[in-house]
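Researcher: Can you fold this with zinc ion in place?
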Amino acid sequence: MTRILERLEEIYAIGQHRAAYSPEEDAAHALAARWMEEAGLEVSRDDAGNLFGKRGAARVWAGSHLDSVPTAGKFDGALGVVAAIEAAGRLPDRELAAVAFRAEESGPMGSLRLTETPDAYLELHIEQGPVLAGLDAPLGVVTAIAGQARGSRTFEGRADHAGTTPMNARADALVEAARFILHVHDSAGDGTVATVGAIEAEPNAVNVVPERVTVSVDARSADARLLDALIERIGFDVRWRSDPVPMGDAFAAVLPDAPRLVPGAGHDAMFVPNASMLFVRSLNGGVSHHPDELSSAEDIALAVDALTEALSRLTR
Ligand SMILES: [Zn+2]
């Protein structure tokens, strides 16, 4: 157990921000490659730069990513890679692979550029939310990853002098956008979430009535029909949409009584065929993409045991 925590510290010490294909991400991959060799795995890389530590035919993979956001904590991604190497070391006679994917946080995602795919892929990840803590449960089985729609809505008004234009003579694009933002917020709930996270206002000057405003929309649901209904209700230009992705039952078989979860965040497991995913409880209110991100040593130990058991059942 201490080895896993020490390795998470080592990866974090390279840099809090390990951007896609940066020297910091490279250094994290180099560290992981060394640990893979120590675990008796044969190290290789594909054209996307994804890192593999394989033993034998390796038709069953476990892993996650080593890149991170600028404000990252120690667990997102790195835990899944370190745990996979640990589990592989505990199963020295099994044919399997530990994997570290590239560029999960920002793309172009390495897991979307695989030239070879496994018969089963297992990913252990910190929950990045408060649900398991609220249920007082250390581990949760992911049943599906939510579908998402992203896009925007643009409002056109007229630029006018902020001092000389009477209130009833204005076409204020930002006021219209503000009404829309409240509408987006009120449109979600019950199995769906929706967020306006970015605004562009033109000319964006304190003394000019806003002429043109574009607001982003991010809408998510684990149910494709609910997602489509939400998009319809909000009314925006969808630039990109993904369906919910069902997860396999490799962890459900090991943990029949664990709570079932449907995360709203994207993961490598969405793009690797035959994926199953396990969440470990987030402490500190579920905070993530933040230095306070935390899982306990006890919970991580349970998670690595479950990962090892799931790998053991899938391999020979
Ligand atoms: Zn992650």
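Model: Folded with zinc ion in place. The CA atoms of residues 117 and 238 lie 30 Å apart.
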